[in-house]
Specification:
The complex is a heterodimer of chains A (about 400) and B (about 550).
Chain A (H helix, E strand, L loop, with lengths): L3 H7 L4 E4 L2 H12 L6 H24 L7 E2 L6 H5 L5 E5 L2 E8 L6 E5 L1 H4 L7 E8 L4 E9 H5 L2 E3 L4 E5 L7 H7 L18 H11 L13 H8 L2 H14 L8 E2 H4 L16 H4 L3 E9 L2 E9 L3 E5 L7 E14 L11 E7 L5 E7 L8 E3 L3 E3 L4 E8 L2 E8 L1
Parallel strand pairs in A: 4-6, 10-20
Antiparallel strand pairs in A: 1-7, 2-3, 3-4, 5-9, 6-7, 8-9, 11-12, 12-14, 13-14, 14-17, 14-18, 15-16, 15-19, 19-20
Helix pairs in contact in A: 2-3, 8-10
Chain B lengths: L1 H14 L3 H7 L2 E8 L2 E8 L1 H7 L11 H13 L3 H10 L5 H12 L4 H8 L1 H12 L1 H16 L10 H12 L2 H4 L12 H20 L6 H6 L3 H10 L4 H17 L15 H18 L10 H16 L3 H10 L4 H13 L1 H11 L2 H12 L4 H12 L4 H26 L1 H6 L6 H23 L3 H12 L4 H8 L6 H22 L11 H15 L6
Antiparallel strand pairs in B: 1-2
Helix pairs in contact in B: 4-6, 4-8, 9-10, 9-12, 9-29, 10-12, 14-17, 15-16, 15-17, 19-25, 20-23, 21-22, 21-25, 22-23, 25-28, 26-29, 28-29
The chains are: A alpha+beta (about 400), B mainly alpha (about 550).
Chain lengths: ~400, ~550
């Protein structure tokens, strides 16, 4: 896998952006707190929000905008769009720019869902092609196309998409930024959508409210679907019904047994410097946690599984696997003292199944740079949760051994 | 002796290339050689190609090597001799030379060797073109290696020889490499076009190499619809089988969950997901026009078969076609800008605007567009002044300074040629080429000054080696220097240019070159490309 630096070196003329671990974690936390009808919809929202934020920053800085571009709808409406459609839109100087993320390894074409081209109130003047790789922490802007280009591109009526070859994209974003001041926005020519009766819409919503792992956008004729989805009120109803009838995803637990196979959840990154624990075969990851104005690094060490002999009064002696776990918190930045009153605690079930807690707190006037809990021992499948608290701010993460 | 030969060459250039030089251009291969730690090209003749070509090429034919290359390209692409007539009629001005070559060959068709060539022109023309593209392979590889590989982590995996080998391997399919070359355009030679194409392909090939070990589920999850279709077509899938496989893959993409794990560690779909995919497949069969039913158990083997087809496709020759399509570039942008220049004096505008930029911006743009240093190298050289940390940040900073220049340009052009902007903004892309030209000249001027101080025989050695690609033994023979190795002399001369450039950069530009270890290698490459392309050596 090529690193961001390697990619920037190989393709220096393209626009690359780094998606920092901090940004990825914050965005994941945000979409995790929202309702979505499926995990894939949540993943789509995650990628779209990352793109939206990164591209908005890019345009603000590079186009010398006095304020960030306006998101095309109210921000609270975005989940209802991302639950069923890929893409978002922003507005700059009376021009609408659709941002279309794509996570294909080989970006070969800009594929835009038909909603962004053929719904009069959604259509954009420009379509920005963005390739995103959240796991590797980068995003690249490959170019843009006009609405007219997209209308003339290849239309796939089965998937309801328009696609334009990568070679047809205009590459220089600055041309887009500069020309905006010289010419009025081009007029968009789009056929109006059919008007559907409330009764028809209600019938469709009833049918589409069944929760599925995929978006229902292909499950009704496009014109009718477009009429439904373009109405923010009907879209809200559909979103609420689908996401509420969806089984609520249990708060995702960090699965430490997968760490042994180098499978790590997003936001959990390797430590910048190797430690003795790693040399001993442990898996160690860290995650930046924002508590108000402070960012604390939570470090979790999963030691290699050991097989130990156990003996209880009720059962004969037997071998069972056991895993050692170390929990630590540090300030981001070497040797920076931890904030006073920072508390690190762990909640777990004891041998008899009752809740138990261990905690450490930084006393006032202390200059300690790290806080560590006593080593925990757990059996595979056992669950525990870790909480960091600073004043009114608190963060909890659930784990399974 | 040197002056006499140089004078002959000037004469031959006016008349067209000499017979021997044409024979040499189409029969010489490059063998990279290590000489005192420097990698230099050694040009070696293929005697069989020479024997084949000598009877075909006529002395005193006033056409240059590019016209011969265009002629051989047409011959290699087309078996129908009438095509040549039709083609020459369509672009007479550019392709006069092709017609002259064709005319004299047809006039001599009774001669045995000419008859042989005219009977089987495609095969021979193909081989001759492959040899002709050897310098393009070397310079593409060298430029790519010094600008993209050497300054990055990829230098642990790829050497200059590897890059040359990849380029040369692809150049053996010369007609494919040149398939998008617009023969009716005169502003680009075949070699320049091939060099640019090969260099762009190198980046994509290296990126594709990293995908060889992709797991099945990563491959399928992050596959594009376009690549899927191309792979299934290449694998000989019938239309109905392809529709079925595409639908299975679509259902997989809709339902499979990535679970936010590292891409290469994605697990196979669960039983439940496979069942969901099957249900979805049955639901969508009708719109796809598929009548064949499949069982839930066959979803998994079908997906694995698709992954296998894609893997085969990625390692097949078909990829070359796709890469060529991707890397196809027109060369008219610069020409269009030059056309605009005639009425707007764009050069003056750029020069004035350039001078108005902050000093650090001027240096940065000169290093980027002129010396073609990488982002990492510019960061190392200018870090204290720029206060930037990451390569992508520098990349954006360069784009911002470029934007300032574009803005000034647009203002001026809008006042004079408003209709150009209204029609199309793509000419802005050509500004990169113009800036590259402008910033390179900034350094070339100083190299030219040093060139004037060389002795005439030294200039001639450089000319024969860099611009004529003479074999080492022939150059030594020409100078009657049988005992001295030529390459150290070439390297010494290159180093003298390099030292001159370094001194000037340190004293005038006040750049601390010790901050960047790779600068020597970059200057070596820069000087070599200047000697090959721009230095006027044959006076």
């Amino acid at each position: 896998m090529l690193s961001l630096d390697d990619l920037v070196t190989l393709y220096p003329d393209e626009t690359w952006l780094e998606l920092s671990s901090h940004d990825r974690t914050a965005v994941w936390q945000q979409v995790s707190s929202q309702n979505y009808s499926s995990l894939n919809a949540r993943e789509r929202a995650y990628q779209n929000l990352l793109c939206l934020q990164a591209v908005s920053r890019l345009l603000t800085e590079d186009f010398d905008l006095s304020q960030p571009p306006q998101v095309w709808v109210e921000e609270h409406e975005l989940p209802s769009i991302w639950d069923v459609v890929n893409g978002s839109a922003i507005e700059i100087n009376r021009r609408r720019l659709a941002i279309v993320p794509c996570d294909d390894t080989n970006f070969e074409e800009l594929r835009v869902e038909q909603e962004w081209i053929d719904i009069p109130t959604w259509a954009a003047h420009y379509y920005l092609a963005v390739q995103i790789n959240p796991q590797e922490g980068w995003l690249r802007v490959l170019g843009y196309a006009t609405h007219q280009q997209m209308q003339r591109s290849h239309h796939d009526p089965l998937e309801c998409t328009y696609s334009l070859d990568r070679q047809q994209l205009r590459k220089d974003l600055h041309a887009l930024g500069l020309l905006k001041d010289w010419f009025p926005p081009p007029n968009l020519t789009i056929a109006p959508l059919p008007l559907l009766s409330d009764r028809t819409l209600e019938a469709w919503i009833k049918q589409l409210s069944q929760t599925t792992l995929y978006s229902p956008r292909l499950d009704m004729p496009f014109e009718q679907w477009a009429a439904l989805i373009s109405n923010s009120e009907w879209r809200r109803v559909l979103y609420e019904q689908r996401s509420q009838s969806a089984p609520k995803p249990a708060c995702p637990k960090i699965n430490l047994s997968q760490w042994a196979y180098a499978i790590f959840e997003p936001g959990w990154q390797a430590l910048s410097e190797p430690t003795l624990a790693l040399a001993r075969g442990s898996h160690q990851r860290t995650k930046p946690i924002t508590l108000g104005d402070h960012t604390v690094s939570l470090i979790v060490t999963r030691e290699p599984t050991e097989t130990v002999m156990t003996e209880t009064l009720e059962e004969p002696p037997k071998l069972r696997p056991e895993v050692g776990i170390l929990l630590e918190a540090k300030m981001i930045g070497a040797d920076t003292p931890l904030c006073a009153n920072l508390r690190l605690s762990v909640l777990f079930h004891d041998e008899s199944g009752h809740n138990d807690t261990i905690e450490q707190q930084i006393p006032a006037n202390s200059f300690r740079s790290a806080i560590q809990l006593p080593r925990l021992l757990g059996k595979p499948g056992e669950e525990f949760s870790v909480t960091l608290t600073l004043g009114e701010f608190s963060f909890t993460e659930a784990f399974v051994v | 002796m040197g002056y006499q030969l140089a004078a002959n060459m000037r004469q031959s250039d006016r008349m067209g290339a000499s017979k021997e030089s044409i024979v040499r251009e189409f029969s010489t291969f490059c063998v990279p050689q290590n000489c005192y730690g420097y990698r230099v090209p050694n040009w070696v003749s293929d005697r069989s190609l020479q024997r084949m070509l000598r009877p075909i090429v006529r002395e005193n034919l006033s056409v240059n090597k590019d016209a011969w290359a265009r002629y051989f390209l047409l011959r290699a692409q087309q078996h129908d001799p009438q095509f040549l007539d039709r083609f020459v009629e369509t672009a007479p001005e550019v392709n006069d030379g092709i017609w002259t070559i064709h005319d004299q060959l047809v006039a001599r068709r009774e001669e045995l060797q000419t008859t042989d060539f005219l009977r089987e022109p495609a095969t021979i023309a193909h081989r001759l073109l492959s040899a002709y593209l050897q310098p393009s392979c070397w310079y593409a590889a060298q430029h790519f290696y010094s600008t993209k590989i050497a300054p990055s982590n990829l230098s642990h995996e790829y050497s200059l020889e590897d890059c040359f080998q990849i380029a040369a391997e692809n150049a053996t399919q010369s007609t494919k490499i040149l398939q998008n070359f617009q023969i009716g355009r005169k502003n680009t030679t075949i070699r320049t076009y091939a060099e640019k194409t090969l260099e762009k392909m190198l980046a994509r090939i290296i990126q594709l190499n990293t995908m060889r070990n992709d797991s099945t589920w990563k491959l399928l999850r992050y596959l594009s619809q376009k690549e899927l279709t191309a792979a299934l077509q290449a694998d000989g899938y019938t239309n109905s089988k392809m529709a079925q496989s595409c639908l299975i893959w679509r259902c997989f993409k809709e339902i499979y969950q990535t679970r936010q794990v590292q891409q290469n560690q994605l697990p196979p779909p669960t039983e439940l997901q496979l069942q969901e995919m099957h249900d979805r497949y049955r639901q969508r069969c009708k719109p796809y026009g598929i009548t064949t039913a499949i069982s839930a158990e066959s979803i998994l083997p079908n997906l694995e078969a698709i992954a296998q087809a894609v893997r085969q496709y990625r390692s097949s020759d078909a990829v070359l076609d796709r890469l060529l399509q991707e890397t196809h570039h027109t060369t008219d942008g610069l020409a269009d800008l030059m056309r605009v220049e005639q009425v707007t004096q764009i050069g003056t505008i750029v020069a004035q605007s350039f001078a108005e930029l902050p000093e650090v911006a001027q240096i940065m743009l000169n290093l980027w567009f002129g010396l073609e240093l990488s982002h990492a190298e510019i960061l190392r050289l200018l870090k204290p002044e720029l206060k930037l940390e990451k390569q992508y940040q520098l990349s954006r900073q360069i784009k911002r300074y470029k934007k300032t220049l574009v803005l000034l340009l647009i203002q001026k052009l809008a006042a004079q040629n408003y209709e150009i902007l209204q029609q199309d903004d793509s000419f802005i892309d050509a500004l990169d080429e113009y800036l590259s030209h402008y910033c390179k000249n900034y350094f070339y001027t100083h190299l030219d000054t040093h060139l004037q101080q060389l002795q005439s025989h030294e200039r001639l050695v450089l000319y024969l080696h860099h611009q004529q690609h003479w074999e080492q033994s022939k150059i030594l023979e020409r100078f009657n220097l049988t005992t001295i190795d030529l390459l150290p002399q070439v390297i010494r001369l290159n180093l003298s240019f390099q030292s001159h450039l370094k001194y000037w950069m340190k004293t005038l530009l006040k750049i601390d070159l010790s901050r960047c270890q790779s600068i020597d290698a970059r200057l070596t490459s820069f000087v070599e490309i200047w000697l090959k392309e721009s230095a006027i050596l044959e006076r």
